[in-house]
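Fold this sequence, please.
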Amino acid sequence: MGCITKHYLNEFSILGVWKIEEDIKTLLESVTLDNDEKKKYKGYTSTSRRLEFLSVRALLSELLGKDARIVYNKNNKPFLKDGSSFISISHSLKLTAILLSTNEKVGIDLEYMSSNISAFAFKFINRKEKITRDHEIRKYHLYIHWCAKEALYKICDKEGISIRNNITIEPFEVKDSGEIKGQVQTHKINESFDLFYSKYDNYAIVWTKKNYERL
């Protein structure tokens, strides 16, 4: 299917989502890899990791053009090689998402919503956070929290952040899509963030962006 959404959030930011329905041969033919990318691609042995890698390049090409290139730092955080935009990437099962902004740091996370999240919710939900008891929406509520915390972890780009203890999502009413607020508090960071969430099929997606000078 390829790119299923290309959403301009404002004049500086764009969000794209790719649904992986192609095989490796088709995706390889749709992208142009440089030598570094070819080396990284060949380092993956599983079909799923290769599909993820290629879908990211295909989506980036759709958003910015075929010359756009991703590089990684020592912590495997992605950057655009030409420095033209901040970038955040997420993928789960058959979806890949990229968030780009020319003037703000960004963070995005998407997850396929499996049924066992309640079993490990204690690892990321803290005492300040409120989760609905409504069985029909509890799973989605938990996944919004999980994705929001992952997005905030990415945007802060700081080592030593505990997703459970240092990131808190304010209580909110669950809808198909909406806006929520989160806080990151450590001995180095004390910041509030606006986050946006939505659902696509059985996936939860959360993203955030903020002026990098304040982080």
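The CA atoms of residues 24 and 51 lie 6 Å apart. The helical segments are 24-30, 35-42, 47-64, 135-156.
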